[in-house]
Amino acid sequence: MKTWPAFVLLALATAAFGQRVQVGSGSVVQTVTTLKPGQFVWVPQVAPEGPMLLLVNLSTQRGLLFRNGVPIGASTVSTGKTGHGTPTGVFTILQKQVVHHSSKYDNAPMPYMERLTWEGVALHAGNLPGYPASHGCIRLPAGFAKLLYGATKLGMTVIITDEKVTPRIAPAPQIVASSPTAAPTPVMGAFEWQPEKSPQGPLSIIVSNADRKAVVLRNGIEIGSAPVTVDGSVSGTWAYTLRNIDVSGQHWIRVSLSSEDTADRPVPREEWQRFHAPDGFRRAVAQIVQPGTTVVVTSDSLVSGAVATPVTVIDAERRGR
């Protein structure tokens, strides 16, 4: 078994740490397409709570992290090379170790390891040359791997697919297959409202200026949608978070995701006058918002494709590796 000197491990960790970049003029999903090897995006404030799901795309060599159905992180990856392909399917995180070494490949370091199979497939920090280069694992920039490790729990769902399309919203933890379709023209006044689909849990609302539509997600499940128009220019993506509710009303803050400025900014009441939605929808949403609710406003479309039906992979028993 090979022993890796401390200075080698330090060099590997430094080289693989990667570069955290800001969301540009679009959304997390748009930004991921422009990332260079080793770069990643991390904006957990847009959905502070809720079920999480990681989507790894073998075709694009990208990973996209959702919380409460909202994209909160994206990264370049390096998956299995020819002869050591990374399997597609539905997996769960079986084991986590900050410090781990491979028992199959020369005791190679696998920092921030999150195991997906007992045969040796795992998420971990590693070198990202810009193409599939691993022995089947999913390599991540060390900076992203560390953040991901701190946010995930055992049992979290990981989807590995080889389809090129990327979903804008991920109902977690179930992803259903569908074909890319154009967004229908919203009819002002009509809206969908089915709160019984998810009676409780963290609440996220996504407003797409491109689609002129709002989608309400509770605990990662879509419970409502409505046509929405926004006055003025909508460029990039930003989020509102409900801080608290008192006798004077609701108190929201605005967080920009499209610049280096991440300072919390109180939201004046008149800002909400920019948004126009059916009265029934507004009343329904007002009844369920609570501190921690987020509203994400984006110039991006929510309709860009879907994930193909994955092959379910079941690891019924633990095996050595």
Q: What's the tally of helices?
A: 4
Overall, the morphology is elongated
Which CATH-level-2 architecture of the largest domain?
Answer: Beta Barrel
Helix content: 10-25%
**End-to-end separation:** 14 Å
The unreliable regions are 6-15, 171-182, 305-321
What do the pLDDT scores average to? Answer: 80
| Rg over C-alpha atoms, rounded to the nearest angstrom | 21 Å
> What's the main sheet like?
8 strands, mixed
What does this structure look like?
- With 321 residues, the chain is mainly beta.
- It folds into two domains: 6-161, L,D-transpeptidase catalytic domain-like (Beta Barrel), CATH 2.40.440; 192-298, L,D-transpeptidase catalytic domain-like (Beta Barrel).
- The chain is 11% helix and 30% strand.
- It has helices spanning 6-16, 28-32, 142-151, 279-288, and strands at 19-20, 39-42, 52-57, 62-67, 70-76, 89-92, 95-97, 113-115, 122-125, 138-140, 157-161, 192-193, 203-208, 213-218, 221-227, 229-230, 237-246, 249-256, 265-266, 275-276, 294-298.
- The strands form four sheets. It has an eight-stranded mixed β-sheet, with helices on one face. A seven-stranded mixed β-sheet has the order 1-2-5-4-3-11-6.
- The longest helix is centred in the first third of the chain and has 11 residues, at 6-16.
- It is elongated, with a radius of gyration of 21 Å.
- The two termini are 14 Å apart.
- Mean pLDDT is 80; it is low at 6-15, 171-182 and 305-321.
